[in-house]
Amino acid sequence: MGKYYKNSIIPNHLRRNFNVYDRIKKLNIDLGNEKDWVTDLRNAPIASVVFHESGTTYLSGLGLGPGQMYDDPKRIKIGQNFGQKIADSMIVRLHWALTCGGEGGDLNDVLYTVKALGMVVSTDVDFNSAPSVVNGFSVRWQSIFGGGLGEFSNNGEDQNYSGVHARSAIGGFTGRFSLEPEIIIAIPPELSITIIKNRGWIFPLPPKELKRLKN
Known about the structure:
Blueprint: H1 3-6, H2 20-26, H3 34-37, E1 49-51, E2 56-59, H4 73-99, E3 112-121, H5 130-145, E4 166-173, E5 179-186, H6 189-199, E6 202-203, H7 207-214
Parallel strand pairs: 3-4
Antiparallel strand pairs: 1-2, 1-6, 2-5, 3-5
């Protein structure tokens, strides 16, 4: 279990008893390598992750998919599959954001998930399946951190529910992708403060900070 998670405010009867990385391995999620994921902010218009000293951590959205969604089961399934891919990518991004500075934190230090927003591309005014499409993202998130709809649940029960989140799922957007979810999580304030003090609140890193960490 995470170093900071052990000392967090989560009561013992609600703590995870599984290693998040074991689930990641079972789901065949490739965490990639530091060279590809730990970069700097040169030419970057937005941040991928922002840490707040309270522990609230914001992940920017990622848009994927072949385009417009509509109320067809096969099309919805395609959107769900891309939602799963987005969740996987965000997990990898969050892993490197938490670990790249050597502060001792990792994905096992995620306390719980706060809020997700899923925006689904569809110009069909009768489109009613935005929540179903975004479920591909939310269910995958629960599979990793815990939740009754996740792959490791049994009859709607999981050992922990730190992957369950409040959510809005909205259709009606245009774009050359199918959906773009974003998510907010909570980590221990001690970890967030340590990260900010060591390398700042933002990921990717300021160029000088990346150079310093590599040295």
